[in-house]
Specification:
The structure is a single chain. This protein has 13 helices and five strands. With 335 residues, the chain is mainly alpha-helical. The chain has two domains: 227 residues, Rossmann fold (3-Layer(aba) Sandwich); 80 residues, Tyrosyl-Transfer RNA Synthetase, CATH 1.10.240. It has a three-stranded parallel β-sheet with strand order 1-2-3. Strands 4-5 form a two-stranded parallel ribbon. The longest helix is centred in the last third of the chain and has 31 residues. The chain is globular, with a radius of gyration of 22 Å. The mean pLDDT is 95. Bound molecules: adenosine-5'-diphosphate and tryptophan. Tryptophan (TRP) binds next to β1 and α7.
C-alpha cells in the first residue's frame, strides 16, 4: 500500500544549518529513496507560527524564506505536494470538529503549554496562564488537523513533536471508535535517531531562539564572520589541538568526506591554527551552500515564482482535503 508522508515547517525565522541538516536534507533524501512508493506533502505551517510571530511584514518574509529554502535545496513540486497551510480552508473546519473530540485534559498535559505554565509558577505569577494565548493551548489540535486531513500514515518529526503526533493519533482513534468505522487514518511519527543535534556557535543546540545559529543563506562575507565566531579554546597557533573537544572539528565533520576529515584531524593535531582551521571550514561550508544560495537569491527576487508554485500545490492538496471533509461531514454530522 502506498504511504502518505506529511510534515510541516513553522516559519518563525531564517532557516539555519541545523534546520537544513536536521530536517530539510533528510526529508528530501526520503523523497528520492521512496520514489513512487509514497505520496509526499510538505507544507508551511504559518498559522502555527502566528502563535508567536505577530509582525505582518516579518511573517510574510519568513514564509518566503522557508519556501525558497526548500526549493533551493531541490524540492521538486512534481514529486511533493508543497503548499501553505492558509490556502487550505478545509483545515480550519476540521480543526473545529477535532476540538469537539479532544479532551481538554490532553491539552493541559501538552509539553509546550506545560512548560509555559511552569515558567509562570517559577516567577510566582498569580495566574499560571498569564501571557499564554489560546493559539498556544490549542496548537496540537491544529497540528492534528494538518495531519489527519490528508490521511497521513507517517509524520517525520523531531523528538519535541512526538507528543503532538500522539495527540493526533488519539483524536483519530477516538473518532473511529465512536463512529465505528475508519473515518480518519491513525498516523505514526517517524523520528530519525541518527540525525545528530547540530551545535550552535556557542556549543549549545543550534536554535533561532538561542541567537547562536548560522543562517543558511547569508552573504559569503557574513558566513565567514560567523564561522570566525565559533567557540575555540585558548590553544596557541602552533600548539597541538584536540579535535575531539573542538567545535570547529564537529562542524567540519558535517561538511566533509571521512578522508577529508582525517586529513583535517591530523593537521589539528600537528598544530594548525584556529584561524586557518576556520578558513578551511568556511571553504567547505561555502562550497556546499553556494549553489543553493544562488538559487535562493534568484527565487527571493522573483517571488511570483514561489507564489505560483504554492498556489498549484494548494490546488493539489485541496483535492485531497475536500474528499476527506466529505467523508468526515458525512460520518460525524450526517451531512
Ligand atoms: P529552531 O530551534 O531554530 O526554532 P525549529 O524548532 O523550527 O528550529 O526546527 C525545525 C526543524 O529543524 C525541526 O525538524 C528540528 O528538529 C530541526 N532542527 C532545529 N534545530 C536543529 C539542530 N540544532 N540540529 C538538528 N536539527 C535541528
Ligand atoms: N509543530 C511543528 C514544529 O513546531 C510544525 C508542524 C505543524 C508540523 N503542523 C505539522 C509538523 C504537521 C508535522 C506535521 O516543528
Amino acid at each position: 500500500m502506498k504511504k502518505t508522508i506529511l510534515t510541516g515547517v513553522k516559519p518563525t525565522g531564517m532557516a539555519h544549518i541545523g534546520n537544513y541538516l536536521g530536517a530539510i536534507k533528510p526529508a528530501l533524501e526520503e523523497v528520492e529513496k521512496r520514489k513512487e512508493n509514497a505520496d509526499f506533502f510538505f507544507f508551511i505551517a504559518e498559522y502555527h507560527a502566528h502563535t508567536s510571530v505577530k509582525e505582518p511584514a516579518l511573517f510574510k518574509e519568513y514564509i518566503y524564506d522557508i519556501a525558497a529554502t526548500w526549493l533551493a535545496f531541490g524540492l521538486n513540486p512534481d514529486k511533493v505536494t508543497f503548499y501553505r497551510q492558509g490556502d487550505i480552508p478545509e483545515l480550519f473546519e476540521l480543526t473545529w470538529l477535532l476540538a469537539c473530540h479532544t479532551p481538554k485534559g490532553d491539552l493541559n498535559r501538552a509539553h509546550a503549554y506545560k512548560a509555559l505554565v511552569a515558567e509562570n509558577q517559577e516567577k510566582d505569577n498569580q495566574d499560571p496562564d498569564q501571557g499564554i494565548n489560546m493559539g498556544v493551548y490549542t496548537y496540537p489540535i491544529l497540528m492534528a488537523s494538518d495531519i489527519l486531513l490528508f490521511d497521513t500514515n507517517i509524520v517525520p518529526v523531531g523528538k519535541d513533536q512526538i507528543q503532538h503526533v500522539e495527540i493526533a493519533r488519539s483524536i483519530a482513534s477516538r473518532i473511529n471508535e465512536l463512529y465505528k468505522t475508519e473515518v480518519l487514518v491513525e498516523p505514526q511519527e517517524e523520528v530519525k535517531e541518527e540525525v545528530a543535534t547540530i551545535p550552535g556557535l556557542d556549543g549549545r543546540k543550534m536554535s533561532k531562539s538561542y541567537n547562536n545559529s548560522i543562517p543558511l543563506f547569508v552573504s559569503e562575507k557574513k558566513l565567514k564572520k560567523l564561522v570566525n565566531k565559533i567557540k575555540t579554546d585558548s590553544t596557541g597557533p602552533n600548539e597541538p589541538k584536540d579535535p575531539d573537544t573542538a567545535l570547529v572539528y564537529d562542524y567540519y565533520k558535517l561538511f566533509s568526506t571521512p578522508e577529508e576529515l582525517s586529513v583535517f584531524r591530523e593537521e589539528l593535531i600537528k598544530g594548525l591554527s584556529w584561524g586557518e582551521a576556520k578558513a578551511q571550514l568556511f571553504e567547505k561550508i561555502n562550497n556546499q551552500i553556494k549553489g543553493p544560495r544562488d538559487k535562493y537569491n534568484q527565487l527571493m527576487e522573483n517571488r511570483q515564482v514561489i507564489d505560483k508554485l504554492l498556489v498549484d500545490g494548494a490546488q493539489k492538496a485541496r483535492a485531497v482535503a475536500k474528499r476527506t471533509m466529505e467523508r468526515v461531514r458525512k460520518n460525524l454530522l450526517g451531512l
